[in-house]
Automatic annotation (TrEMBL):
The lineage of its organism: Bacteria, Pseudomonadati, Planctomycetota, Planctomycetia, Pirellulales. SMART domains: SMI1_KNR4 (SM00860). This is Cell wall assembly and cell proliferation coordinating protein. Residues 23-137 form the Knr4/Smi1-like domain. InterPro entries: Knr4/Smi1-like_dom (IPR018958), Knr4/Smi1-like_sf (IPR037883). It comes from Rhodopirellula baltica SWK14. It comes from the Bacteria. Pfam families: SUKH_5. Signal peptide: none annotated.
Amino acid sequence: MDIANAIAALLDCNEPVPKPLRLPTESDVCAVESELGVVLHPDFRRFQLEASNVRFGIREPFVALPDLMPYLSLAANAKAAWAAGVPRNCIAFCGDNGNYFFLNPDGCVGYYDHDSDSHSASKQTLADWIFEDWINDPALSDD
């Protein structure tokens, strides 16, 4: 699975909201990278620029926009995740009831659990996560 296909599928799932967020610009993304002292993985950068304003299901990934509500701010949440225990070389991209999904420098998804103060990484890519944990989230099934 590649990020282009994942983004296309995600855009098809987008739910209308009264005031949708705008997509970040290249300048917005660069400003967040500068503020955090990181370079975003290319797949995550592409997601930010093309689909980070999608609203679907229960997941709300963080967005690289200035003056955004703190619960959605990529910069604010990355800093909070580092303070909580996410490794400093990783970027939290989505919250989960006090836990965090994050990307490591290789673009693999990890999970930080605040209850056990532990983190684990997988071989799952951001594209895989979009399909498996967002679009096909078991919590959204009618079973």
